[in-house]
C-alpha cells in the first residue's frame, strides 16, 4: 500500500480537521482536537516531511512503525523524523477520548541553527514503536508544559527573538526526553535485563558455532533484529546498563573467545584470526592489542 505523504504542516491540519496553522513551519496541536483521517478501520500508512513529537494518552486504535504495532493506552511519547513510514489504524469502537499534545517541526524551521545538526543525534527518533517513552505523571506535566511554552511563543507577536526562544524550548523538550529515556532504561530493570541476558546467550551461541567462519562477526543490525529491538534502542539500553555499546559487547565476546584459543590451543595467530571471522590476521591483531594492550603472541607467551 502506497503511503500517504504529507509534505507541509498545513496539509496535516487540513487532513485532521484543524484550523490553518498560525506558523507554517511549527505547530503545537491538542490531540483531543484531531479528527479521524478516514472513516473505515483499514490501516493507512503515512510519511511526513517534518518532525513529529507526540505525547498521547487513551489513543484510539493502533499505531504501527516498522514491523511493530502498539496500543497506546497510557501517557506515551514517540518521535518520528522526516521520511519515516508509519501506520495508523482506527478502532471500531471509540468509547474514550484521546488526549495529549503533538509538536510538528519542519526542517526549514531549524535551518542555520545548531539544532539542525544536533537533532540527528537524538537516537530515539529511530526507535521502534514498542520502544516508546512511558511517562510518569510528573514527567508528563513537564513535557506538556514545554509544549505549551512553544505554542504560547509563536502565538505571541513574532520578533527577532521568537525563533531562538522556540528553538531553545524544542531543545529543552528533546533533552528532557533523553533524560526520561535514561530513567526508563533503569526503572524497567526486569525487561531490560532480560534483553541483556538474551544478548549474552545469543553471543555465546554465535561464537560457539561455525557462524564466525562462514558469516564473520555478527552485526549490530543482526543482533537487534534477533532481539526484536531497534539498533539505537539496544545501544542506548546497553550504554545505560553496562556503559558499553552493542559493538563493544561484540568485541568483548570476541576477545574472550580469542583469549581462550590463545591459551588452550596450539593454533597460530592467523588460524585463530580465521576461525574468529577475520579475513586479515593483521586486523585481528590490531583489535586484540587495542582491547588488551598485548599482541596475541605476547598474551600467549604470558601463559608459558
Annotation keywords:
alpha+beta, five-stranded mixed sheet, five-stranded antiparallel sheet, 10 strands, 15% strand, elongated
Would you kindly provide a written description of the structure presented here, covering whatever features stand out?
The chain has 304 residues and is α+β, with helices and mostly antiparallel strands. The protein is built from 13 helices and ten strands. It has helices at 9-15, 107-110, 114-118, 137-155, 162-187, 189-207, 211-215, 220-227, 231-242, 246-264, 269-275, 281-292, 296-301, and strands at 4-6, 26-30, 44-48, 51-57, 62-65, 68-70, 76-80, 85-89, 99-105, 133-134. It has a five-stranded mixed beta sheet with strand order 1-3-8-5-6. Helix 11 (269-275) packs across helix 12 (281-292). The longest helix has 26 residues, at 162-187. The protein is elongated. The mean pLDDT is 83.
Give the topology, please:
Layout: E1 4-6, H1 9-15, E2 26-30, E3 44-48, E4 51-57, E5 62-65, E6 68-70, E7 76-80, E8 85-89, E9 99-105, H2 107-110, H3 114-118, E10 133-134, H4 137-155, H5 162-187, H6 189-207, H7 211-215, H8 220-227, H9 231-242, H10 246-264, H11 269-275, H12 281-292, H13 296-301
Parallel strand pairs: 1-3
Antiparallel strand pairs: 2-9, 3-8, 4-7, 4-9, 5-6, 5-8, 7-10
Task: Summarize the structure in short.
By secondary structure, this protein is an alpha+beta fold.
- Coarse shape: elongated
Order of helices and strands: EHEEEEEEEEHHEHHHHHHHHHH
So how many helices?
13
* N→C terminal distance: 65 Å
Give me the Rg, rounded.
24 Å
* Neighbour order of strands in the largest sheet: 1-3-8-5-6
Q: How much helical structure, as a percent, in the residues?
A: 40-55%
**Which runs of at least 5 residues are low in confidence (pLDDT < 50)?**
none
Q: Overall pLDDT, averaged? A: 83
In terms of structural class, how would the helical and strand content be classed? alpha+beta
- Give the biggest beta sheet: 5 strands, mixed
Tell me the total number of β-strands.
Answer: 10
Report strand %: 15-25%
Amino acid at each position: 500500500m502506497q503511503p500517504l505523504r504529507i509534505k507541509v504542516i498545513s496539509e496535516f491540519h487540513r487532513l485532521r480537521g484543524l484550523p490553518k496553522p498560525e506558523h507554517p513551519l511549527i505547530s503545537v496541536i491538542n490531540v483531543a482536537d484531531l479528527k479521524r483521517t478516514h472513516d473505515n478501520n483499514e490501516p493507512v500508512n503515512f510519511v511526513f516531511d517534518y518532525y513529529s513529537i507526540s505525547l498521547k494518552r487513551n489513543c484510539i486504535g493502533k499505531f504501527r512503525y516498522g514491523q511493530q504495532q502498539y496500543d497506546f493506552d497510557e501517557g506515551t511519547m514517540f518521535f518520528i523524523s522526516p521520511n519515516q513510514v508509519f501506520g495508523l489504524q482506527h478502532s471500531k469502537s471509540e468509547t474514550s477520548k484521546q488526549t495529549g499534545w503533538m509538536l510538528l517541526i519542519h526542517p526549514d524551521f531549524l535551518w542555520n541553527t545548531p539544532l539542525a545538526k544536533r537533532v540527528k543525534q537524538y537516537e530515539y527518533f529511530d526507535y521502534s514503536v514498542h520502544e516508546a517513552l512511558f511517562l510518569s505523571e510528573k514527567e508528563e506535566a513537564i513535557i506538556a508544559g514545554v509544549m505549551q511554552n512553544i505554542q504560547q511563543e509563536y502565538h505571541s507577536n513574532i520578533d527577532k527573538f521568537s525563533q531562538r526562544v522556540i528553538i531553545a524550548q524544542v531543545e529543552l523538550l528533546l533533552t528532557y526526553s533523553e533524560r526520561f529515556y535514561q530513567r526508563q532504561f533503569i526503572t524497567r530493570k526486569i525487561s531490560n535485563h532480560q534483553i541483556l541476558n538474551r544478548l549474552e546467550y545469543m553471543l555465546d551461541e554465535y561464537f560457539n558455532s561455525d557462524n564466525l567462519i562462514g558469516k564473520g562477526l555478527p552485526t549490530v543490525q543482526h543482533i537487534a533484529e534477533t532481539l526484536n529491538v531497534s539498533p539505537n534502542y539496544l545501544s542506548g539500553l546497553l550504554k545505560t546498563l553496562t556503559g558499553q555499546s552493542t559493538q563493544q559487547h561484540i568485541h568483548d565476546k570476541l576477545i574472550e573467545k580469542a583469549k581462550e584459543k590463545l591459551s588452550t590451543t596450539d593454533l597460530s595467530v592467523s588460524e585463530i584470526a580465521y576461525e574468529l571471522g577475520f579475513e586479515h590476521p593483521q586486523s585481528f591483531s590490531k583489535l586484540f592489542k587495542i582491547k588488551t594492550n598485548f599482541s596475541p603472541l605476547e598474551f600467549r607467551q604470558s601463559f608459558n
